[in-house]
Specification:
globular; Rossmann fold; 569 residues; 3 domains; binds ligand 9G3; BirA Bifunctional Protein, domain 2
């Protein structure tokens, strides 16, 4: 491709409203342009990368026997009403009406559409299992789209849905997809970790998220420093053997703690450490009040609370509700003397001896608090967020945190959708059964941004060859020099004939401008044709390492092929 005519509008300065590297670099390298918040045009350079990623995704999906199709982005509301999600989904679901005033949604995901397709086209176990996938634009009206393609309102996803007659068949497909995803993310050059995740609103049970490690990632991963255990922090189980101290229990005493409300204020007022304080939170679980107790230095993991109490919704009490139910302000509540409110506690509370808790009275706390004597706990549960330094729940090593960008997710959906939509099949006994489903997503446009987050330096992008928009950036340094131009032209032809993808910078620009743009665009190898053209010598630069090599044109193709091979390891 001749750069003179190639639409790649590079920018020198960093755009003000771009806060992360991939967003800044995709704008500066002329890959994307914003049309509205979270809505972008993919310019030719980005389109080439998307095509490479999509090709890798297709190869890995097709290899498993999955079948590609394309579903509509315009979904009739009726389908979403069948599963109840038309009403459940809030502002994130983009809704519109057509000229006949019929209601539609712009598809954020396709469980409803695919399940209605299968309902009408499969009715025998002999036709299962089936895995259908598409690569297509999704719409989700994020409240705060940001970070460029990392969290847009219109984005490209590969979404796959599998249908099974048995749970074993689903389990098998889940592993197949898990492996295919590992292949995809390895091939696009990402450093990633599959993590145990939370199935969220869509129900179902097992689910793993594929996390690309990056400081800007919004998800926190808890992983073991000596095993392959890794979980989204929302799901990481805490398995600690708490030891009860053998200090003698003191008598219960109410003390004046004045204005001290927060854990820190109470701890400093009473000159104790936070782990002696019992933190009490009043939570509405479905429709009942629950007093949740944690050790003062731990944080409540609300996802765990919801799972452990099998709740469909939980909500923290407002200050007024706390006053009504417990007769005290939030900073002075505790379990002692509490009637007709269920009390649950994290396991760490069980071993607190001579602790402190709110006295359910103004400016007062209890000291010398001993669980079992002064109050009872109905259930001890794993309710706290895991912390760095905790033992890994698999018993191997210690927990460390890392930030991740979720680029893929695999779910075992079960029959959540097929039951609601009547997608059934006749089993070998002729009995009607709901199809058992799995679903699997890869954020294709998000993956491009994640690759840039992991492969860039202060001068620009450093594309892995597998997804680079071109392999070689060929620079003719002085377009007024006949020798340099003719050598560049012949190399351009030769390298392309040999199957290399070449971006040929033939613009009437100074060498410095060409070097800066080449670093920014970040193709794996730059070949500069300059002063030594008359000796048949060109200068190669490896973008990833900065290595500079002078090469005679007779060895150029061989050297380029070897270097690309080395960079692809
Ligand atoms: C919605 C809106 C946003 C959503 C969903 C529905 C996320 C929704 C979860 C999934 C699950 C899997 C198939 C591919 C892989 C992910 N955000 N999810 O269901 F209406 Cl507005 O999409 N779907």
């Amino acid at each position: 491709m001749r750069q003179q005519y190639f639409l790649v509008p590079t920018m020198r300065d960093v755009p003000a409203d771009a806060d992360v590297a991939s967003h800044q670099l995709m704008l500066r390298a002329g890959m994307i342009r914003q049309v509205a918040a979270g809505v972008y045009t993919y310019l030719p350079l980005a389109k080439r990368v998307l095509h490479k990623v999509e090709t890798i995704v297709r190869e890995e999906m097709d290899r498993t026997g999955a079948q590609e199709l394309t579903m509509p982005t315009l979904h009739p509301a009726e389908l979403w009403q069948e599963t109840g999600r038309w009403d459940v989904m809030g502002g994130e679901l983009i809704r519109l009406t057509d000229r006949h005033n019929r209601h539609f949604a712009l598809g954020p995901t396709h469980e409803e559409v695919i399940t209605s397709l299968l309902r009408d086209s499969i009715n025998s176990y002999k036709k299962l299992p089936l895995n259908l996938y598409q690569i297509q634009t999704k719409f989700r009206d994020e409240r705060r789209p940001r970070f460029g393609l990392l969290r847009g309102r219109e984005f490209i996803m590969k979404d796959a849905y599998s249908f099974h007659a048995t749970q074993e068949s689903l389990d098998e497909e889940y592993q197949t997809m898990y492996k295919a995803y590992s292949n995809v993310f390895a091939r696009v050059g990402l450093t990633f970790r599959p993590v145990i995740a939370d199935s969220g609103a869509i129900g179902g049970k097992d689910t793993h998220e594929f996390m690309a490690l990056a400081e800007v990632g919004e998800d926190t991963i808890a992983y073991s420093d000596s095993s392959d255990y890794a979980a989204n922090i929302e799901m990481a189980a805490v398995k600690v053997n708490y030891v009860k101290s053998d200090e003698a229990p003191l008598t219960l005493q109410k003390v004046d703690t004045g204005e001290a409300k927060t854990i820190e204020e109470v701890a400093s007022k009473l000159n104790v450490t936070a782990d002696k304080i019992i933190k009490s939170l009043l939570v509405q679980v479905d429709n009942e009040w629950v007093l949740v107790l944690l050790r003062g230095d731990h944080e409540l993991n609300d996802i765990k609370l919801k799972h452990e109490l099998n709740a469909s919704s939980i909500r923290f009490a407002t200050a007024d509700e706390v006053e009504q139910v417990l007769g005290a302000t939030i900073g002075n509540i505790g379990p002692i003397g509490v009637k007709d409110v269920k009390i649950v506690a994290d396991h760490a509370v069980e071993v607190i001896v001579n602790g402190i808790c709110g006295a359910n009275a103004t400016n007062s706390h209890f000291i010398g608090v001993n669980v079992g004597r002064d109050f009872d706990v109905e259930q001890y549960l794993d309710l706290r967020f895991i912390q760095e330094g905790d033992p890994s729940p698999d018993g191997n090593g210690t927990i460390r945190f890392a930030q991740g960008i979720e680029v893929g997710q695999v779910f075992k959906l079960g029959t959540v959708y097929s039951e609601k939509m009547g997608a059934t099949f006749l089993d070998e006994n002729g009995k009607s059964q709901p199809m058992i489903m799995g679903c699997y997503g890869i954020g294709v446009s998000r993956t491009v941004a994640a690759v840039i987050e992991q492969h860039h330096d202060e001068d620009g992008i450093q594309w892995p060859p597998s997804v680079a928009p071109f392999h070689i950036h060929l620079l003719a340094l002085n377009m007024k020099n006949e020798e340099q131009v003719s050598l560049s032209e012949s190399l351009y032809e030769q390298l392309q004939k040999a199957g290399l993808e070449v971006l040929y910078d033939d613009r009437p620009e100074r060498a410095g401008v060409k070097f800066k743009d080449a670093d920014l665009i970040g193709l794996p190898i730059r070949v500069a044709v300059g002063k030594k053209a008359n000796e048949g010598i060109v200068e190669m630069k490896i973008r990833k390492t900065g290595e500079m090599i002078e090469v005679h044109v007779d060895e150029l193709l061989q050297t380029l092929t070897e270097q690309l091979e080395r960079l692809s390891q």
